[in-house]
Amino acid sequence: MAIIKSVRGYTPVIGENTFLADNATVIGDATIGRDCSIWFSAVVRGDVNTITIGDRVNIQDGAVIHTLYQRSVTEIGNDVSIGHNANIHGAKIEDKCLIGMGATVLDHAVVGTGSIVAANALVLSGTKIEPGSIYAGIPAKRVKGVTPEQVKDIIERTARDYVMYASWYKEKEDDK
After folding, report:
1. What spatial distance separates the first Cα and last Cα of the chain, rounded to whole Å?
2. Which of 52, 75, 94, 157 places its Cα 20 to 30 Å from the Cα of 31?
3. What is the widest separation between alpha-carbon atoms in the chain?
4. Which helix (DSSP H) or strand (DSSP E) does residue 75 occupy?
5. How confident is the model at residue 175, as a pLDDT?
6. pLDDT tens digits along 32-73
7. Could you give the CA distance from residue 18 to residue 81 in angstroms, rounded to a whole number?
8. What is the H or E stretch that residue 99 is in?
9. Closest CA to 68 of 106, 41, 120, 121
10. Local structure of residue 68 (DSSP, 8 states)
């Protein structure tokens, strides 16, 4: 069963039809929307500041979502995929974005709507990623724009697929 822990008077709020893997951890001042999934060994740690996650967001295995005490909050929009072992720390991820496996997005960075942060990229503090951009590298730089096909075939499909994957686990729970 997932670890859901209150701290400093804050109890996580978890939206309807949201899947929490058995060893996912959600702590403190964290609000998670509808139809989301928090996967194995992922941590949403709202102990030092606020974390707000929209609808149809997937936080994949080993990802960490955190903030800075009294200095930054984390906001994740709708239809966002956070790849395996990614770190989001005090940043804003707007709607319909994909954060690649192992990527790190640091405090006060903003990832604009419809953008992709490539696997293992490092988005430095305060970086503003233009909507519809692909950023890659260390530090992350703009590589090119995201095509409408990529929004549909990569970003939207991944978010939709993870809602389906989560449903497979719910079916097993309902069979018990």
Report:
1. 14
2. 157
3. 48
4. strand 74-76
5. 58
6. 999 999 999 999 999 999 999 999 999 999 999 999 999 999
7. 14
8. strand 98-99
9. 106
10. B
DSSP per-residue letters across 129-151? EPTTEEEETTTTEEEEEPPHHHI
Pick the closest to residue 96 from 17, 158, 164, 165 (CA basis): 158
| Calpha distance 114→27 (Å, rounded) | 28
Read off the DSSP letter of residue 154.
Answer: I
Total residues belonging to the chain: 176
Q: Is 176 exposed, middle or buried (0-12, 13-18, 19+ CB in 10 A)?
A: exposed
Please give the radius of gyration of the chain, using alpha carbons only, rounded to the nearest integer.
Answer: 15
Residue 170: the pLDDT is 83
What is the reported pLDDT for 149? 95
- In the beta sheet, which residues pair with residue 45? 27
* Contact predicate 44/23, CB 8 Å: no
